[in-house]
Design goal:
The chain is an alpha/beta fold and 368 residues long. It has helices spanning 17-20, 26-40, 42-48, 60-72, 78-87, 89-95, 106-117, 121-130, 133-136, 239-249, 268-276, 302-306, 308-316, 320-329, 341-365, and strands at 143-152, 160-162, 191-193, 200-202, 211-221, 227-234, 257-261, 279-283. It has 2 domains: 17-119, no CATH class; 140-153 and 213-365, Nucleotidyltransferase, domain 5 (2-Layer Sandwich), CATH 3.30.420. Strands 1, 4, 5, 6, 7 and 8 form a 6-stranded mixed sheet that branches. The protein has a two-stranded antiparallel sheet with strand order 2-3. The radius of gyration is 23 Å and the shape is globular. It starts with 16 loop residues before the first helix and ends with a helix.
Amino acid sequence: MRGLDERTGSLFSYVDLEARVRRGHPLRVIREIVNAALVAMDGDFAVLYPPGLGRPSIAPERLLRAMLLQAFYGIRSERQLMERMEFDLLFRWFVGLGVDDPAWDHSSFTKNRDRLLEGEIAAKFLRAVLAQPRVKRLLSSDHFSVDGTLIEAWASIKSFRRKDGDDNGPDGAGRNAERGFHKEKRSNDTHQSTSDPQARLYKKGDGQPAKLCYLGHALMENRHGLAVDGGITQATGTGERDAALAMLDRRPSRRRITLGADKAYDVRQFIKDLRERKVTPHIAVDGHLSKTGKPRVTAIDDRTKRHPGYDVSQRCRKRIEEVFGWIKASAGMAKVKLRGCARVGAAFTLNLAAYNLIRLPKLLAAPA
């Protein structure tokens, strides 16, 4: 049964949380936007929490607000988040807990959070934030950028074992025993992680170490650099391009747009797929030399490169690295603490929404 998102006062409480939060605090604007988005999602919550079934849960609205705080302040674990909730009046005010309300047990919070994220709530929340009128006017409807980044999985390289079990013998004593795989040929076709089977061994480029990881993807509008879509896929050589096409197909409008991206997207088939979707490819030229010393033939034609908008897109597309940088450094997703594409994808998408929210107070305060 769905819990109620209502604050109950206490007869002997003398602390007014509303008065303890200064008027100009950025979380005030963020909380208004978050609450409006949560009201729009009331029907989605009703589907996840059938009435009269079981005991009341933690209110999903409070769960989402607490998860946003965890991203805003870079809190590493749910246990630390609950400890912070016990004494921090700002946290209690933002989540919706009264001064006398007890904080949740960290294990109960985690179980309720996983149930919430399984319903694609993160993606719906991101769309609900962007759909608000004062946020929607900030977004460009014509010019976008796309990119991908590696998200290291919560699995040790020692867990990357053969699928047929031929290398599962004892490796030594102790919990973290030595694992000898020197000169052993390993690939995703014959091996997989025993800790996170959906994570894949992948390296970003030549000279880079191979890691068990996922690929995170984001679609950014170019006017203010806000993320409008995103997700997680398994790490493959075509994962970035496949995810870009999937995000473009999810757009509600089919009007012609431009799409900026780095040289990893300079592939003839991908450019063809973009043009079929009425997307003008503003892709960086991949002009590296082949083994024979000849420059690679680019799929971007000269007419596109001569257009003034091409140079603008090349400058704007680099702002998407700010999104990935904040998610990894501030929100703590450099090495994700969840396992499986579904859970990692939900956390990644929620952090995209959190990135947008921390930028909105200044954007909304700026003169039109």
